[in-house]
Design a protein that fits this description.
Pfam families: M20_dimer, Peptidase_M20. Its cofactor is Mn(2+). By secondary structure, the protein is of the alpha+beta class. Helix content is 34%, strand content 27%. The chain has two domains: 1-195 and 315-406, Zn peptidases (Aminopeptidase, 3-Layer(aba) Sandwich), CATH 3.40.630.10; 198-312, 2-Layer Sandwich (Alpha-Beta Plaits), CATH 3.30.70.360.
């Protein structure tokens, strides 16, 4: 990587900082729910038009911006753009007070960027602006992918269904980053192999036979059935998963009954799983269904259990060659501020597009807080990373990583 050329591409950081900080605050104060990012995507489009960068809308709120700059590598960089249904409690003077109607429920909910996607938007916009302003210092094609609905694992699939592949001609690499609380502020962390877990959520509907609480012999008690299932499910990880692997199986909600002297007709369980190995993830799914079906048979249920899967995230496993190349670029540009990142049990739909297209990828972490030991984690109502150096460093990391392919 030609580090002098990279420094020239990033030479405008001081000049653009004030404008970028104001734009960041706009995105922070106007978070929108997954697949409802209408204002967000419109603001991104307005910025791209002001930079005179060609773009195409993909689906309802996705956007692909492309800078063609002669022969060379094709580098794609993804930023997720959706917010969360969480009321912000960060205390920032630019905190979100936004309220939005959730189209799936019709309810009004407070929204915030409690996962840091506002920084992801700004990192990509800033990288596009910098690369577009300094075309003499690099060559090839840089593609910015503004992806909706990461939080519900729907956005990457939606972009694929709406033709994003046509906007990624012969892409050589697919890059992405995520602001995190567990890295020192302004530092970057990389990892080869599994970095984010595979995950799925599951609703299980159990059907019993209702009865008066004084006559349990006439019932098939779905509450007792749910309790037996919950106890048995906890043995999957402890007794079916090898100690050399890791897995999480959480029963996050149980819904059944309304009165103490009524044995209800139905019960519902909500389950979430995580694993750093796809075979383990597949085993969890098989084992859950096996346990539930066996317990239902033992309880004499009049109907089989119903399983509804949702929020399904694939394993994010970084390509070794790509990751080493990005890490070398980071080490050169950010000496003393790069780390070997631990596995993160959170999950992402980042890998869905490159995996579908056969493009190698890497995904790294960006430290967002000066004091990571006391920082709130992602999805915490108080999660609002330090404005600086996070804003500048996210832009720099995007350019430095892409330059490993674009700068001779």
């Amino acid at each position: 990587m030609g580090i002098d050329a990279v420094r020239r591409i990033l030479a405008d950081l001081d000049a653009t900082r004030s404008q970028r900080e104001e734009l960041y605050k706009y995105f922070h104060q106007h978070p929108e729910l997954s697949m409802q990012e209408t204002l967000t995507s419109q603001k991104i489009v307005e910025e791209l038009e002001s930079y005179q960068i060609p773009y195409r809308r993909i689906g309802r709120t996705g956007i692909v911006a492309t800078i063609n700059n002669g022969d060379g590598a094709v580098v794609a960089f993804r930023a997720d753009i959706d917010g969360l249904p969480i009321k912000e409690t960060s205390g920032k003077d630019y905190a979100s007070h936004a309220v939005q109607e959730d189209e799936s429920t019709g309810a009004l909910v407070s929204t915030s960027h409690a996962c840091g996607h506002d920084f992801h938007i700004m990192s990509l916009l800033g990288a596009l602006q910098a690369l577009n302003s300094h075309k003499n210092d690099w060559q090839g094609t840089f593609i910015g992918i503004f992806q909706p609905a990461e939080e519900i694992a729907a956005g990457a699939r939606d972009m694929l269904e709406n033709g994003v592949a046509q906007e990624l001609p012969r892409a050589d690499v697919y890059l992405g980053q995520h602001v995190l609380a567990n890295l020192p502020g302004g530092h970057v962390g990389t990892r080869v192999g599994a970095v984010l877990s595979a995950a799925f959520s599951l609703k299980i509907e159990l059907t019993g036979r209702g009865s008066h609480g004084s006559m349990p012999e006439l019932s098939v008690d779905p509450v007792l059935l749910a309790a037996n299932i919950i106890t048995r499910l906890q043995q999957i990880v402890s007794r079916e998963i090898a100690a050399s692997n890791s897995a999480v199986l959480t029963v996050g909600a149980v819904h059944a009954g309304a009165k103490s002297n009524i044995i209800p007709q139905t019960a519902e369980l909500l389950i979430n799983t995580r694993a750093f190995n796809q075979d383990v993830a597949n085993h969890l799914k098989e084992a859950i269904e096996r346990v539930v079906n066996a317990e239902c048979e033992a309880a004499r249920c009049p109907e089989p259990a119903r399983f509804t899967y949702y929020d399904e995230y694939p394993l994010t496993s970084n390509d070794a060659e790509v990751t080493h190349r990005v890490r070398a670029a980071f080490d050169e540009y950010f000496p003393g501020e790069t780390h070997d990142m631990d596995q993160v049990p959170a999950s992402e739909d980042f890998s869905i597009i490159p995996s579908a297209l056969g493009v190698p990828y890497t995904f790294w972490g960006l430290g967002g807080f000066a004091d990571p030991d006391s920082a709130p984690g992602n999805h915490n109502p108080a999660f609002a990373p330090d404005l600086q150096p996070t804003l500048d460093r996210g832009l720099e990391a995007a350019v430095v990583a892409a330059s490993a392919w674009l700068v001779p």
